[in-house]
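[Meeting: bench + compute handoff]

Bench side (C.D.) handed over the final construct sequence. Compute side (W.E.) agreed to return the predicted structure before the next meeting so the bench team could plan truncations. Sequence as handed over:
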Amino acid sequence: MNNRNNLELFINGINNTLVGNYELKEGDNIISIKLKNKLINLSYMFYRCESLRNINDLKYLDVKEVKDFSYMFFGCSLLSDLTPLKNWVVSNANNFQSMFSGCSSLFDLKPLQYWEVSKVKNFNSMFSGCTLISDIKPLSNWNVSSGESFYHMFSYCSSLSDIEPLKNWSIYNSEHFDTMFFECPSLSNKNFLSYNSVLNNNNNNNNNNNYFEGNFYKSLNNYNNYSVNEKLVSKNGLLNGIINNFEEIEFVIRKIQYILNKKIFFNLEYKASNIGDRAETFHLICDNLTMSLVIIETDKNIKFGGFTTKTWKGNNLKKIDNDAFVFNLGTNSIFDVIKYEPAIGCYPKFGPVFFGCQIRIYDNFFTKGGTTCHKGLNYKTTKDYELNNGEQKFLVKDMEIYSISTT
């Protein structure tokens, strides 16, 4: 491939090696596609190909046996035309998670209107971050009756103002609607009330109907609208250590209240400057906490941390927690976990680990410190080492861990 303007792609459908051997760059033009194996998995094929514009040759791709399309075009921010995909036979697909997430130039869904999606179970984040999509009428006839999870399917679609076209979707097998329309500022509760007819028309389960209604109101609300009672925080000692003032931590508290939808109380369980920096001490004190908030201050006075609803108990165990998030106090930034990705790691020889190594605290961390990681690994960070202001390694000045209880 001496001429990068005439790329010939060899796609191994079993191991999916398309992007692993080289990086697509602006100006690249796919002139042919040759298959070494029958395609069964297209996940991550064009993951973060940020200069990819033209996918015309994909119209020749036979995808009828493919089951997993997750993250296929994730982060392809210049991709705007899906016409080459209009005749794809996706009737065997079961996973569309994040397929077009972050395709911020995408605005027309008409090429997808005749897709047969009746076997798809996972629609999580499929169009999340597609900020130009305003019309979802092409999806009105999709058969989503097998769908089990719709987390963040249209989150951050800031141009979306009408969800009436989805009123005939049959979703009676589904339970997970939280944040389906999260941060869609053009939507209103009026939009939601019309969309709630999905269950009114198709379901007879009143309990499921109530669940749907509550979680859709939640999905339309920005957690920043939640009120925070400062007294419920300061009296439990949250302001007596790393945190200097209530305003510094308020956006994190608001996020936790949004997740739990209850009043919350904090209790300081572990403070490294008082009891030491050994991993075994951390686990002895914190392993059985059912919910916890971790706050770290580095030797450069950078403050960041994470929240999880899982315990730290386990022997080299990864845990999924769809409510987990990490944050940077200095930039007022919160980064949610990628749904169904491991959120935390429980390792006896380490302190708290938020997976993808967004936060990894070593044993004897006053001298050995910890590390952060590249963007987008397990959590929705957008820059490398974003929690630590662009630096991978850090030394720990202090670390506090709070248990959380609710009323």
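W.E. noted at the follow-up: Residues 1-221 form one domain. C.D. will use this when planning the next construct.
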